[in-house]
Amino acid sequence: MGESTVKLTIKFGGRSIPLSVSPDATTKELKSLLQPITNVLPRGQKLIFKGKVLVETSTLKQSLVGDGAKIMLMASQGLHQGEGPVLKEASTRPISRTVVDQNKPGLVVDKNRADRWKATGVIALAQANLKEIPEEVWECGSAARVLDVSENFIREVPVRISSFVSMHKLFLQGNGLSDESIQWEGIASLKRLMLLSISHNNLTVLPSEVGSLTSLRQLDVANNKLTSLPNEIGLLTQLEIFKANNNRITSLPESIGDCSFLMEVDLSANMISELPETVTKLRKLKTLELNNTGLTNLPSVLFKMCLQLSTLGLHNTEITVESLRQLEGWGEFDERRRTKHQKQIDFRVVGSGQFDEGADKSW
């Protein structure tokens, strides 16, 4: 009777990853098992055993990989999540900012400045070396309309943020915030909030409370460690711009189709392998960025239903030009994107027929 499993050690990025798999598993199946552990897309993995690259369709038994075998994993440049292989213990780096002295005394707020905040409703404290939100900010209460405390060292967003009942824009990006740092029940009570930016932090969860922010027009959760999105995202029916690139998201909730005002969506550099059919309900969608993901196809009626779509980023995916041309509505989409960019589109087939939409990139 043959072995039911073999124990392997995968060497990757200075780590030793123990794994038990069936000897009848193929290299392709092994790569799929390694994806959630290493955050490297299967097509970006090269598995090497005894100096030879393991063949995709061969089983471990056929490749003579037995119990106790050590396999080296090499990640191809550009085929992993984000800007590099993301290890479980890795921390998300804040966005680039001027180096500041964390031992420097905290911000001193004079009366004139506090009065100006109350008069204008705009509190601008980006890159102010803050470790917490100053007491003078809280005193603005219902007068506050915009709060920018981005690129600081703030470690807590307390419940009392709910006192900003007139808040329209809240910038919290680049603070290294963790899931425990944010008291979401406070943010969820900001019923007038139209823009929320919490990018470049260390969040692993976007909680269901975000669905309470029904006035949101823009939501930026990019460059965190999110693995999923809550079903309540569909309650954001006024949302127009959604940025969730550079995370670890593996799938989208079907409720995304209820965000009927969405015009711009960026899901690049995630672990997504397919889109829900409900994406085709986004009739106002103009820009959809899906670069550097595990996608192999798109919903068959995407071009037919999303009649305003004119920018589609598919750089570094396995979606081919040929497969796109088979989709109903391709011709009309092609015409829209030609018109928008006012130049001939440039298709480049990279490697094994990958679709490269570099000509569509407008940033």
UniProtKB/TrEMBL annotation:
Superkingdom, taxonomy of origin: Eukaryota
Ubiquitin-like domain span: 6-77
Coiled-coil portions: none
Keyword Transferase: no
Gene3D superfamilies per the UniProt record, alphabetical: Phosphatidylinositol 3-kinase Catalytic Subunit, Chain A, domain 1, Ribonuclease Inhibitor
Keyword line: Leucine-rich repeat, Repeat
Entry protein name: Ubiquitin-like domain-containing protein
Source species: Brassica carinata
